[in-house]
Design a protein that fits this description.
The protein has 518 residues and is mainly beta. The chain folds into four domains: 142 residues, Immunoglobulin-like (Sandwich); 106 residues, Immunoglobulins (Immunoglobulin-like), CATH 2.60.40; 87 residues, no CATH class; 144 residues, no CATH class. The chain is 3% helix and 63% strand. It has one helix and 31 strands. Strands 19, 20, 21, 22, 29, 30 and 31 form a seven-stranded antiparallel beta sheet that branches. It is flat, with a radius of gyration of 55 Å.
Amino acid sequence: MTNTTRVRTVVCIALLSGCGVELGGEETVDRPEVLALSSETLSFGDTLEIYGGNFVQSDAEHTDLRFQGMFTPPSGVASAVDTRVRPHWVDGNQVVWAPVGPFTNPFTGGNEIGTFDGDVRAINVDGAGAEIPSKPLRIRLTFEGSIAIRKLAPTRAECAEPVKRLLGGFPYDITVEAVGFTPKSFTYAIAGEPLFPQGRVYRRGATGSSHSFRFVVAPVPDDVAFQLIVLSVSSLGTDGRQRMNSMVFGVHRPIEYVDSGTFKTAEVLAALPDSGCISGGPTGRTVTYVESHTDIRSRTVGINWSEAWSESSTTTKTLAHTVSNGITITNNGSTTNSSTYGWNSSTTAHVNVGSEVGGELGVPGVGSITGKVMTEVGIAHTFGRFGSHTTAYTQGWSVGRTQSTSDTESWAFSRSRGHSLSKGASDFWTVSSADSKSLAFSGQVLPGQFGVFYRQPVRIALPGALIAYNLCSDPSVVAQTNFFDYTWSVDLAIGNSCTPFPKSSLPDPQCHITPCEN
């Protein structure tokens, strides 16, 4: 508490009014005071400093800010505002609201620009929930044209709002919008990554008021639990002004361990004698207990290498040749004689000459067929008064030929070849380091007395938690853990005899965090 605060407290006690004082009671939380703001204009992602007094921050209490009034956009339709935020505590006279927004207008929940007219109060809250507000300070804050973050999420992830943390090694999609001005270009800058000490800058031309970009967050280094980076989005407007929205993000692993940083006593084991009975003799003596402790750390590099490959081919060959020729000849002939006698008297001359057909038919892949068919019919006579005589002769033949040729060729060859090689090594390269220390404990055994050194193991625990993050960077505690180690206590017990041993003043066995030996 500053000197100014002490003076104000004395005056309030004297007047018995305000400052969190109750008649007949105790003062719980000092009344804060708001004196001034660092700026009257804001944009998304800006920092607003609030100056005053009696701002608090501890495990049991903190300071909030409450804004009440009206917000008027360029359209002229005003809306009521009642917004409460928890700023970052700097000291008793300064708190910082950062970043303002940074994704939406904190007074409307949208992306409007305009002016807030109203009051701001600081409210001190104690562990029991009691609140002590300051007197209101009349302010006017104007939201100017700026860059709003519409989307910030891992690729293919569906998040209700832009994420507030990033995961190392993951690709992210970001969509921004120029609010209140016409952009010519967008620039994305990432700083603070150990993998890129010079930072990364990406500049893209604007094709409208909105723009989307994809980037990959660098992994978290092995020697830190998490890291902080700065993601800045700037845009040059057609009016020649440069606007920027700059945000600080924590980059985490998907699963990380966070310890409390405070060791606890998990178990006190029974104290056991660590020496025989030491006599003080007639003049007494000084005895010393020396304990040496060596901490050895080893790093081992193991190499395992394997190689395997195979080769195979197949060839099949078959050769076949076939030739087929055929000739077919057919000869058909017949003769018919008949006589008829009657009482008719007539003569008839009759001749039939058969037709001849010839030709050649070619069939691809088979050959050709040729032939001739001929039919002759003789002369029929009916003569005589008293009868007739008929003679018929028929002859036919055909000649045919068939021929076919076929060639078939196929081949196949089969060959296989394999190779396998593996090599393994363990403790191929080992580096060790040792840290040694000695602990000496001295005591006085008086004449005629006896002493015994006792040694008592103590198991200590370092509590921690395993935290898992989903794709939208929401954390959840998946397990509570304890890392255990051991230390020892030493005592010199003094007695008048060695039977029984003098009793140690070390504490009795105790179990605080299971599992315990007894």
